[in-house]
Specification:
Layout (H helix, E strand, L loop, with lengths): L4 E4 L6 H10 L21 E5 L10 H8 L4 E2 L10 H14 L4 E6 L1 H15 L5 E7 L25 E6 L7 H11 L2 E5 L15 H21 L1
Parallel strand pairs: 1-7, 2-3, 2-4, 4-5, 5-6, 6-7
């Protein structure tokens, strides 16, 4: 799933079909809908959930997935309201380092940007044990002074399969910026029409489309883990 490509998901498209379309572009098949934390071949993966600014509340899809996925690890920050790059990135790095298996990052909003910064630092240390990443509604830190510490956003191609899922009317990041992120990171770009910030406020609780996309990434995890070995 490496290499930038565009997958536009109409609102009426069943989420499993959308994930299959994204995966098949790269000759892969997503895992079955009952996936709960193992890759398709049975290989174990560690899901690391990275919330954004103000954390993700009880009804947020990240919180619901954390309860569903066996062994999922959730990144916690000391200050969710006044984010600073150094401690936020350090928390992501620590969660990755503590994971017992190849990691799939599941990040939302500013958590996406913190995650990419963490990947850059781990790459410099030759310690990047990541098998894939799902970046949802990434924030544009240049649009809010509160997030200025997270600029510039790394623009290097990521060394693992990744998906950027973004809405056409996200108030925190224009769709063109999310597309630019996907292009620079080498991610599959999933354009979700009129989905807001893909959070509780925009009506996304369980978010089955995202769950199916996560399954598509999990199908690639054993392949990526073998390549990194």
């Amino acid at each position: 799933m490496s290499g930038a490509c565009l997958v536009t998901i109409p609102s009426h498209t069943p989420p499993r079909r959308a994930a299959i379309a994204a995966a098949q572009r790269h000759g892969q098949a997503p895992v079955q809908p009952g996936w709960h934390g193992d890759a398709e071949t049975g290989a174990a993966v560690s899901v690391v959930i990275v919330p954004g600014w103000r954390n993700s509340g009880p009804g947020h899809w990240q919180s619901l997935w954390a309860e569903r996925i066996a062994g999922a690890r959730r990144v916690e920050q000391e200050d969710w309201l006044q984010p600073h790059r150094s401690p936020w990135v350090a928390s992501v790095e620590a969660a990755i380092a503590a994971a017992p298996h190849p990691v799939i990052l599941v990040a939302h909003s500013l958590g996406c940007i913190a995650s990419v910064h963490a990947v850059e630092q781990l790459r410099d240390k030759h310690e990047c044990a990541i098998a894939g990443a799902l970046f949802v509604a990434p924030a544009d830190p240049e649009r809010r002074a509160l997030f200025e510490d997270f600029t510039p956003v790394p623009a290097n191609s990521l060394p693992f399969p990744s998906i950027v899922a973004a809405s056409s009317n996200d108030p925190y990041c224009p769709i063109r910026m999310a597309s630019a992120y996907a292009k620079s990171w080498g991610s599959t770009f999933v354009r979700v029409p009129a989905a807001g910030h893909i959070n509780v406020e925009s009506g996304h609780g369980e978010w089955p489309l995202g769950w199916a996309l996560l399954g598509a990434l999990a199908a690639l995890a054993p392949v990526q883990a073998q390549a990194a070995a």
